[in-house]
UniProtKB/TrEMBL annotation:
Pathway(s) where this gene product acts: Glycan biosynthesis; glycogen biosynthesis
Binding site for alpha-D-glucose 1-phosphate: 114, 179, 194-195, 212
EC number: 2.7.7.27
Protein name per Swiss-Prot or TrEMBL: Glucose-1-phosphate adenylyltransferase
Nucleotidyl transferase domain: residues covered: 22-291
Function according to Swiss-Prot or TrEMBL: Involved in the biosynthesis of ADP-glucose, a building block required for the elongation reactions to produce glycogen. Catalyzes the reaction between ATP and alpha-D-glucose 1-phosphate (G1P) to produce pyrophosphate and ADP-Glc.
UniProtKB keywords: ATP-binding, Carbohydrate metabolism, Glycogen biosynthesis, Glycogen metabolism, Nucleotide-binding, Nucleotidyltransferase, Transferase
Amino acid sequence: MSNSREYGPERVQGPLARSAMAFVLAGGRGSRLMELTDRRAKPAVYFGGKSRIIDFALSNAINSGIRRVAVATQYKAHSLIRHLQRGWNFLRPERNESFDILPASQRISEQNWYLGTADAVHQNADIIADMAPRHIVLLAGDHVYKMDYEKMLQQHVEQGADVTVCSMAVPRMEATGFGVMKVDTTGRIVDFVEKPADPPGIPDRPDLALASMGIYVFETRFLLDQLKRDAEDLTSQHDFGKDLIPWIVRNGKAVAHRFERSVVRSSSELVPYWRDVGTVDAYWEANIDLTDIVPPLDLFDRDWPIWTYAEITPPAKFVHDVPGRRGEAISSLVSGGCIISGGTARRSLLCTHAHMHSWSKLDGAVVLPQVDIGRYARLTNVVVDRGVRIPEGLVVGEDPVEDARRFRRTDRGICLITQAMLDKLA
């Protein structure tokens, strides 16, 4: 069987990913993460001990064979840009590879920053045109999942689509917060609506709906033409989900790609995994899930690694071994540079350089880098922001009224703790 594919008048040899470009939209704040995004964009939020959320989309691109990547940034982008410069600078132009960081720089209009997701791409159209990729794989930089984009590219070319939209089947009434596709029996999209009150069902499964995952494939020339048309439309919000995709559904050929066809799973991952960790509850749960004996997301999968900035850290250290003062971690993930000095962590995740002092206790804690936890502190079901100094004897997670008074407490009882909140208690 030949591995070459037709593309217009030219013939593409080998994987389609090699001639594609991944364009990652990473400019959003993610306001539902509350104070976690006060100082950083959502894609830059830490996840899984040593990674950032954006590392999943970027790793999928690299693992799929894509070697040209661009990341559009906007909101409080310093920590994100610094992470990208440190961790993703291994792509080399002499090997026909590239990695470009594209901050909002008013390239088209000196009055406008990025007005929407489509405008973020349109404002960088000249850069895309110079690189001349055959296809654009458009990605959101704020979701956690493992996916082989090559399979989606193949479907796009084989079906002759103008746009291919990655979709996930979800219970119909859970799809009200997504862009939802109505498809015919061939998988062609016949309607696309943002956050419908009554989502349309799938033809063969009316109890399910096809939710857009914010992953799109376009032929580059077609996309640039559509972005120009949309930019000239004064009624448009310049957004893919609200404007571009519905227009193509009405006037072109849009098809749905099922996530389960390209999801990457190790032998231990039982069901396709995709998470929008856009709320404090969802963020806490996705991190704590990693402490399960068999977690739903396998970060130990060496066949599909999650690349990130490989910070140089010493090994984690556990000290003291007397009753009541024993350094230990049970059903937990402990990153490099951590010191657990006579404290106990249960079902918790500690990012790099966290320090637990004697007689401190964690249960269901997501601890970001460089957190110092004082003696006798007891923290249950919490997210602790980077660099926080937990004072000696602080108790969180045992008195809902007191927790809500001092910290950001969700309806599910998860407490977000920042240094600014603690400073107000002093």
